[in-house]
Design a protein that fits this description.
With 345 residues, the chain is α/β, with parallel strands linked by helices. It is built from ten helices and eleven strands. It has two domains: 93 residues, Aspartate Aminotransferase, domain 1; 235 residues, 3-Layer(aba) Sandwich (Aspartate Aminotransferase, domain 2), CATH 3.40.640. Strand 5, helix 6 and strand 6 form a beta-alpha-beta unit. Helix 2 runs parallel beside helix 7 and helix 5 packs parallel to helix 6. The two termini are 32 Å apart.
Length: 345
């Protein structure tokens, strides 16, 4: 028997999604850019996927650009904004608890001469709208804050930050890493004043290697990849039709069952946290009530190395993570736990 508790790293693909992708690969395998019937059939899957995703965000399908996943979406949004609006300013704002795909993109831009303000989180991992407001300058062009932290499940006040930016600095662009929140929360980018929204398919029972970037109508988007002009010339290359079709269906299913899923997850989370609290030396990090994400728990165990505990649980068929999967190959990466004031020990 296996107990898989590493869904923040990746999820098992939904059976219906897998069946749809198999049909696309086996039967409707045409190139979506081809003009013959096979191409037209493939292009229908692309359009349907964009429509399914757009309905979950209350936006137009024209706002959706498919990518290879969340890392690419984060890189594209931040670099495109910084480069396209360079004449307006070279100041960027982000937080100390972002995913490595945001942190390392910001560090790259620092090397290119940009000035980045790194906002600290409080002991619960929260970035306040007031702290973002205090960091704003006349040369600020972009604010990037994740909606749900992938390590401790802290939920950031994205709507509040977006409203503050609309009121105080409407020209500043707002990027949200929604990789851990999309499919778990209702997100309305237009109402929340979000200009870029990054999503990854394999976090919501879709396939790996596919994601999307929402881009608001007011953004001057720079092309990511040059080539044959696919996706309005912004990201050229043959469309990943099976992946896009799978992502569209996964998104539709997640939002069709959103409230039921959330209740089930919160019930399981409460039960597990109560059990963990009974273990001597165990400490749950950050909030774990309904103000936190329904699907993430972070727990420290004093006197036990995380890698030792991980493999001891693995021997019993229980799979957990000891931190962000994307940071595991970079031991020097400062984790969220250190950023919220916990000791290395």
């Amino acid at each position: 028997m296996e107990i898989y508790l590493d869904n923040s790293a990746t999820t098992r693909i939904d059976p219906e999604v897998l069946a749809l992708m198999k049909t696309v690969m086996d039967e409707d395998y045409g190139n979506a850019a081809s003009l013959h019937r096979k191409g037209v059939e493939a292009e229908k899957y692309v359009r349907r996927a964009k429509q399914e995703i757009a309905e979950t965000l209350k936006c137009s399908p024209s706002n959706i650009y498919f990518t290879s996943g969340g890392t690419e979406s984060n890189n594209w949004a931040i670099r495109a904004a910084a480069e396209a609006y360079r004449r307006s300013g070279m100041h960027l704002i982000t937080s100390s608890i972002e995913h490595p795909s945001v942190k390392n993109t910001m560090r790259y831009l620092e090397d290119q001469g940009y000035d980045v303000t790194w906002l600290p989180a409080d002991s619960d991992g929260i970035i306040s709208a007031e702290s973002v407001k205090a960091a704003l300058r006349d040369d600020t062009v972009l604010v990037s804050v994740m909606q749900v932290n992938n390590e401790i499940g802290a939920v950031e006040p994205i709507a509040e930050i977006g409203e503050m930016l609309r009121r105080e600095k409407p020209e500043v662009l707002f990027h949200v890493d929604a990789i851990q929140s999309y499919g778990k929360y209702r997100i309305a980018p237009k109402r929340m004043n979000i200009d870029f929204l990054s999503v990854s398919g394999h976090k919501l029972h879709g396939p790996k290697g596919i994601g999307f970037l929402y881009v608001s109508d007011r953004v001057k988007l720079r092309p990511l990849i040059f080539g044959g002009g696919q996706q309005k010339g912004m990201r050229s290359g043959t469309e990943n039709v099976p992946g896009e079709a799978g992502l569209g269906l996964a998104a539709e299913k997640m939002y069709r069952n959103l409230d039921v899923n959330a209740e089930k997850l919160y019930s399981l989370k409460t039960r597990l946290c109560r059990g963990l609290q009974q273990i001597e030396g165990a400490k749950i990090n950050g909030k774990f009530d309904r103000s936190s994400a329904p699907h993430i728990i972070s727990c420290s165990f004093s006197g036990v190395r995380s890698e030792v505990l991980l493999h001891a649980l693995e021997d019993r068929g229980i799979y957990v993570s000891s931190g962000s999967a994307c940071a595991s190959s970079h031991p020097s990466e400062i984790s969220t736990l250190l950023s919220i004031g916990l000791s290395k020990e």
